[in-house]
Amino acid sequence: MSSYSGYAKTALHSTVTGLAIWAGLYLLLTGRGERLNVGGYLLRISPYMWGLYGIAFCIGLSVVGAAWGIFISGSSILGGAVRTPRIATKNLISIIFCEVVAIYGVIMAIVFSAKLGAVNSESGFSSSDYYTGFSLFWGGLAVGLSNLICGLAVGITGANAATADAHDQQLFVKILVIEIFGSVIGLFGLIVGLLVTGKAEDFAGVI
Question: CB-based burial of residue 138 (10 Å sphere; 0-12 exposed, 13-18 middle, 19+ buried)?
Fold first, then answer.
């Protein structure tokens, strides 16, 4: 089964690469090579689209990371509580840490969405609008990916904390320190998102 999956991935990559090379050569040989303009492609996309994609990645990946972490740690807590009921209440702090990851994403999505506003100008978007759209996209992506990894880190560490606590309750505090350091990753992502979008202005259009 694994060899079949490897062949399928190789075939997919080869097909996509072949189509891309064919399309590029076709445009170059037919005198339309100027269509391979990445900058023009980026400018043809509305900055609203970039901003909304960034907000969607921010809250979506954060929620996925929180849910994944809760699933990992929660299953271990429930399984260990069958044999050692005393760990159920104390290890709920791992669930709280995972939920905080989603809260980070919601807060940053609200902050990012405040920069989106209606553009009344008929001349289109200004360079400042494009900068805002791009910064919201990359800021939201940075926050979302950081929270996704943070949720996984906290979930796996919380699952091990529950297992260790069921074996020896003196190990809980030691592993909890590791879990706290893992949860700080989401805070780092939040700070990066604020730094990326710090100089982004509200949408105004061409004045």
Answer: middle
In angstroms, the CA 171 to CA 154 distance is 16
CA–CA separation, 61 vs 107, rounded Å?
Answer: 13
Place of tokens 């069958």: 82
Is 55:136 a contact under the CB 8 Å cutoff?
yes
112 φ, ψ to 5°? -65, -40
pLDDT tens-place string over residues 33-53:
666 666 677 777 888 888 899
Q: Calculate the average pLDDT of the chain.
A: 84
Please state, in angstroms and rounded to a whole number, the distance separating the CA atoms of residues 159 and 157: 5
Cα–Cα distance, 163 to 129 (Å, whole number): 51
107 burial type by CB count under 10 A (0-12 exposed, 13-18 middle, 19+ buried): middle
DSSP for 131-176, written as a single string: HHHHHHHHHHHHHHHHHHHHHHHHHHHHHHHHHHHHH-TTHHHHHH
Rounded Cα gap, residues 183 and 147, in angstroms: 9
User: Global pTM?
Assistant: 0.79
If one counts every other C-beta atom within 10 angstroms of the C-beta of residue 188, the result is: 13
CB-based contact 190:108 (threshold 8 Å): yes
